[in-house]
Every structure is written in structure tokens, then in C-alpha cells.
Amino acid sequence: MRVAMIGTGYVGLVSGACFADFGHVVTCVDKDASKIDRLKKGEIPIFEPGLDALVAQNVEAGRLAFTTEAKDAIASADAVFIAVGTPSRRGDGHADLSYVYAAAKEIAELMDGFTVVVTKSTVPVGTGDEVEAIIRETNPDADFAVVSNPEFLREGAAIKDFKIPDRVVVGTDSERAREVMRELYRPLFLNETPILFTSRRTSELIKYAANAFLAVKITFINEMADLCEAVGANVQEVSRGIGLDGRIGRKFLNAGPGYGGSCFPKDTLALTKTANDAGCPVRIVDTVVEVNAARKRAMADKVIKAMGGDVKGKTIGVLGLAFKPNTDDMRDAPSLDIIPALTEAGATVRAYDPESMHEAEKLLSGLDYAESAYAAIDGADAMVIITEWDQFRALDLDRVKTSLKSDIVVDLRNIYSPEDMAKRGFTYISVGRP
Ligand code: NAD
């Protein structure tokens, strides 16, 4: 099959490289010429483990190419994927669909012969109808079907998630389109991956419902963590105690500083907007959005309290900026709320992240960036862990002790043991643990 991937970001590049690895011929298209230039030179513009090798192998095999010119790629494609961004629209929190609609128009002008147009971007219910209308209006003679095929990959484990997914969801009423989608995902049929065929609207909603449910789960355990702190219980044991119940499940029950990232914040918000517009509010998600936003802001207060209530003139060494480990993605990361609040309170922040500092520099000012974890905490009044990179799980604690001016460690990811830290003489504050 021939595939055109419109948008070569975290989702488009991974999906394109994986489809090529399945044996299809893929052209990844992006408007961002610098991104395409880098890809053509063999550089990967994002940090995603394993992606450099996968891209190189498939380029070498002649199955994967990059371009800013969509024309040939779209005209020759059996399937054109829309994998452009759908950020929160400024002001109202609805998903901004302008990139999706622009891509639809462009595809309509360039398609040739029966073409399946697949929306991989996360889009609100009814967007497929609008994409179909745009294509019909722009090119009344076009022979096409619009399919919803939401993506569930997680940054940091994206290749595995794409190649061994829990499920693939395909929303369309067209049997011709279903055939093309079956062929595209055929290697997964061999692995017995569940492939769910639904209506387009159902498929669009599945993606938002999945993200909202996960956000509810995280927010639930975060509130339990606060309650644990208030009543002297241990949230990790609560997580284990409830998670072993198969109906609840153990995943996504780690208390922390609140969810961030390129998906949960914008998707939970967009779902609440869709629900309100439909006259059917999802109050649990409304509350989760509110509680999570407040939690990220409250984390700075937790640090300030741990440091005696005043951080004026003090230096804080921050470990981790990305919204989670194994990615350089900084979108809506908790660090973006926590660090400005600390600097506004008068602290000097010195931060280190293994992969995201080049992105962080665009979004965060008024702090210093260090070259290593130890450089970040050298002479600092406290060490604060915001992202649980593996390398922060195995710090030389004797060295940490001698590097820090005080003994305060605030661990917002619960990666150290309170008993062990106490034994080593740290004043150790974590989340929801005595
Ligand atoms: P991204 O911002 O990394 O990439 C989007 C790319 O699209 C950019 O490179 C941009 O230049 C390009 N683009 C925009 N308009 C274009 C056009 N008309 N033609 C060609 N290129 C164009 O975004 P992302 O993180 O890959 O997310 C894409 C979509 O996938 C979003 O809807 C997101 O919600 C969804 N999603 C993301 C993830 C994730 O973990 N990042 C996971 C699942 C779903």
C-alpha cells in the first residue's frame, strides 16, 4: 500500500516509520521545512527511543521518504493520514481544528483515484463529517472515504505501542475503506491485536473517553495522596491495595504532581466542551480538569513549605522538566507551572533534564540550566525531582548529600524510599507517604 502521512510530529513520524516497517511505502509530509531538512539528513527532530534506527532502516530500504511537497505523495496514495496537531484553541479550550481542515482541503485538491482519508489526529466527535464535507466541496468528483483511526501510542514507548497495541480502532461505514485499513494493519492481525470497527463518531469519542478515563484515574489517586498526607496513610500501599483488584487494575495509580503532556490536558478540556455543546455535561471530567490544574500550581507551595515557608534568595536544584521520562516533550508539563511559581517566590532555580532542555528554553525563562543532575544541585538549598527519569532513580545519594547545602529533597514522583532517605539523614518529602 502507498501511504501519505500529513504531519510529521510525534504521531506522524512514528506512525509513518512503523507503517513503512510493516512493508508499506510511506511519504511523510510536513509544512515545517526545517523538520523535513533534518529528516532528509538522517536527523530525528524529536527524542523517541528507537526511532532513529527504525527511520534509518526504512529510508535505506526505500520505503520511507520525507517531503514538504504533498502533491505526488497524495496523488499516488491509497491512504492519506492526517496527523497534524489539534491543540487547545486559545480562549475557549475547544480543540483547534484549523490544521486538520487545512490538511483536508489540501488533500482534496491533490487526491487522484479512490483514496481513504484517515484522521489520526485526536479530533472531537463530528470532525470526520466536516472533513468529508470540505473534501466534497473542494473536489466534487473525488472518490474517497473518511475514516477515524485514533492513535493511542505513548511518547517514550511509541514504537512498541504502535506495533503491539492493545487495540486498533477504525471508524467508518465504508466497506471499501475497511478493506484498505485491514490491509494497512495486516501485520497486527497476525499478532491477534483486537481491531475494532465502529462508526466514525464512536471511534472519535473512544479516543477522548480513553484519555479522560486515564486522567480520572490519575486525579483520583492524587486526591487519595492528599488524603493520605492528612490522615497519616501511605498512598503507594493504597494503590497496591486497590490495584490488585482486577476491576481497578494497577496501572496509572502513581500519585504525582498532576498530569501534563501533549494529550491529557487538552483532550480532557476538549471533551468537556463537546459534552457541554451536546447538552450533556461530563461533570466528573469537568472536576478532573479543575483539580489537576490546581494541583500543578499547588506543587510549588509544597516545595516552598518543605523549605520552611520562604524561598527568597534560596537556590533549588530541579531534576526533570519533560512531562514524563523518555521524551523531550514539554507541552503542559508540570514543570511549567512549578518553576515559574518558585522563581516568582524569589528562588533561583537550576534545572537539568536529559532530553528536554532545548524545548524548555523556549518555554521557561528566568532559570539556569545545568549540564548534569549533580551540577543542578551543587550548593543548592533543596533538590526537587519533577520527572522520574531512570538516571534520577539511581543517584549516588552520598554525592547528593555532599553536593546539597541543606538536606532537603522533595520527590514529586515517589522514586525513593522515605525510610532509606531518613536513614541517610535527608529531610525527605514525597507525595502521599508519611
Ligand atoms: P506535533 O505538533 O508533534 O506534530 C504535528 C505536525 O503537523 C507538525 O510537525 C506540523 O508542522 C505539521 N503540520 C501542521 N499542519 C500541516 C499541514 N497542513 N501539512 C503538513 N504538515 C502539517 O503533534 P503530535 O504530538 O504528533 O500530535 C498530532 C495529533 O495526534 C494530535 O491530534 C494529538 O492529539 C494526537 N496524538 C498525540 C499523541 C502524542 O503522544 N503526542 C498520542 C496520541 C494522539
TrEMBL record:
UDP-glucose/GDP-mannose dehydrogenase C-terminal domain ranges (all copies): 317-418
Alphabetically ordered keywords of this record: NAD, Oxidoreductase
Homology family: Belongs to the UDP-glucose/GDP-mannose dehydrogenase family.
Keyword flag NAD: yes
Pathway terms, separated by semicolons: Nucleotide-sugar biosynthesis; UDP-alpha-D-glucuronate biosynthesis; UDP-alpha-D-glucuronate from UDP-alpha-D-glucose: step 1/1
Residues bound to substrate: F152, L153, R154, E155, K207, F252, L253, N254, A255, G256, G260, K324
Enzyme class of the recorded protein, top EC level: oxidoreductase
Keyword DNA repair: no
Catalyzed reaction equations: UDP-alpha-D-glucose + 2 NAD(+) + H2O = UDP-alpha-D-glucuronate + 2 NADH + 3 H(+)
InterPro entries: 6-PGluconate_DH-like_C_sf, NAD(P)-bd_dom_sf, UDP-Glc/GDP-Man, UDP-Glc/GDP-Man_DH_C, UDP-Glc/GDP-Man_DH_C_sf, UDP-Glc/GDP-Man_DH_dimer, UDP-Glc/GDP-Man_DH_N, UDPglc_DH_bac
Binding locations of NAD(+): D30, K35, T86, T122, E155, K266, R331
Active site: C263 (nucleophile)
Name the UniProt record assigns to this protein: UDP-glucose 6-dehydrogenase
EC number(s) stated in the UniProt entry for this protein: 1.1.1.22
Pfam families tied to this protein: UDPG_MGDP_dh, UDPG_MGDP_dh_C, UDPG_MGDP_dh_N
Superkingdom of this protein's organism: Bacteria
Single annotated GO MF: UDP-glucose 6-dehydrogenase activity
GO biological process, one term: UDP-glucuronate biosynthetic process
